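Replying to the earlier thread about multi-chain prediction with a worked example.

Input:
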Amino acid sequence: MARMNTAHAVDFHPTGLDSVETVEVCADLLIIGGGNAGCFVAVEAAKKQPGIRTVIVEKADIRRSGACSAGMDAINTYIPKGRTPEDLVRWSRAQVGGGPLREDLALSNARELNECVEDLERWGLPIVRDEEGNASYRGKWDISIHGEQLKPIMAEKALESGADVYNRVVATGLLVQEGRCVGAMGFGVRDGRFYVFRARATVVSTGGAGTLYKSYTADSTDSGAQIWMCPYCVGSGYAMGFRQGAELTSLEQRWVATRSKDFCGPIDTISVGYKSAIINAKGERVMERYKEWGGDAAPRFIRANAPMEEWLAGRGPCYCDTTGLSPEKAHDMLVDYLNERPSFVLFLASRGQDVTREPIEIYGSDPYIVGGHTGSGFWVDMERMTTLPGLFAAGETAGGNPNKFVGGCAAEGKLAARGALAWMNGLELPALDAAQVEAEKARVYAPLLRCGQEGVRPVEMKERLQRLMDEYAGGISQYYRTNEERLDYALRHIKMLQSQFVFLTADSLHELMEAHETMDRVDVAEAVVHHLKARKETRWAGWQTRVDYPERDDEHFDCFVESRRDPQSGVVTTFTRPYEQLIPGDRQHA
Amino acid sequence: MPPIVDPHKCNGCQGRAETFCEEICPGDLMALDTSTGKAFVRSARDCWDCMSCIKACPRNALETKMPYQLGYFKASLRPIMGKSSITWKCRDINGKETTYRFENRKPAR
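Result:
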């Protein structure tokens, strides 16, 4: 085990770049982000190639980092007996309204999936099973777990694999030489050191991007981060690749979900697992209006948008009707919450609410860019390599392949590990490009070196961006709607924010992390807006709603929307790639 | 949605290079105030209320607080960590208490 020691944050006020120590670390394989996917990359790499030198760079502590830090109550995809990986891909395709999705990627993930879930169980994750030992299915594909310890369990295995784990190191930029990725750079948020990680292959598994959009509870003093997605996953992986010219796909397919009102707690647990219907203020069953999409079993984007349409039509508030639950079932449901989002139970207690008497109010979430849920992320090949050679993606960062969730992100971690091992075979590291390292070091520490000067605090820029995205790029205050003019407005202001990065100030290492997170958010937001502009149709209302193009346009847009930023000029171009149906059948029904 | 620190219970994890809460917080929000020797929350509004710090604190010195803007005074939820189970004690604003106990780990095979 090689967990690098961390300590209290030092009081760090360098007078210049020369007073910042640079640490160089060499490895075979670099993993940026030790979450769900990243831990599986490390375990698989060590299994396939014992003795491999693997480094995990993690801005938190891998035992409780990222989206799984609070725990998990279900594995959303585990193929039951009698069903096939092809069946799972058909379901995934229908969940995104028939696609487009990368069926090649989805199928390869599905074939790895069950073994990953069984790995987790062998490692100590309690999976709820009946008397015959069969997993307890809540819906067609999702099984109940007691996943309070999910993240610590995955982290222990990553540590046992022999990987060197650098906790509390914030990755800020990729090292690119000879047209390929040869590592990454960043800084220690506790020790202030500048880190240069050189590696023959790099996997980026930093999670998705929450916090690009304003949450409707963000105006409350102590609720700035009260969102569904982990607010510490801000899209840094997307941003690092985007800045170096790696191609992004499907960022316009934003994840929006029905969540409990005022708390953004997961609600599919209730509506799917506990068969509690969505009702409006009049007590009408809302999903009856969406019978052609499957009613209560409609795809998630339909279910996410439906309550918001009720509000707009004057029929809100809406509820998840839990009043039919027996006290035993209600208890089980609260245990599920304690496994995934414990503070939701505190929220209900703070409303004095008994869910068997009073239904749970629901509302939409703020939008997220999460490639483990929708198709947003890097365009990758079958080995999970991005269009930047040597840079691989797994989990939320890899695009085109929605509905991965915990099991699928694990599966993709294994696939990316194998891809990275094959790629690095026989490959040598070039001599370090010192000029590139110095340039990134100057960029990284600039906000700290401006400490005490008049400027912009990271939180101010973050909140400016969040309001801009909310009101102009289809946030929740606008019921997810946008149009060409609003998107152009958003882009103009994003350009202004980018031009003001030079005014960011930081008075501590923590605030320096915030400064880089905010710059990453702005860069990801730029890509998102370009994607929303390029898809001139409405394919997934709620996830992507264009009021100026309200219909689906299969003739022009039954394809992927892609973006790429030129690393030299900074100009973003968008283009399309064709969708290929590999698995026959009705695309919209599974 | 920050944890509140009970100054009578918190001892700053004396002797540790990091307090347990600052070691585990996914948002780097917990730190040690060297003038008081107690843990504190750097930025309350950035807390996700994942409760990792509450679970990690060996002295039960931390408690997640519901912001009043979202929920009323005064409810509480506390985890008690066992070796292979977790027990949650919840008290709602009307004083109703509920205990939840379940397995969270199996022996690795």
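Chain A touches chain B through 58 residues (CB under 8 Å).

Feel free to reuse this layout for your own posts.
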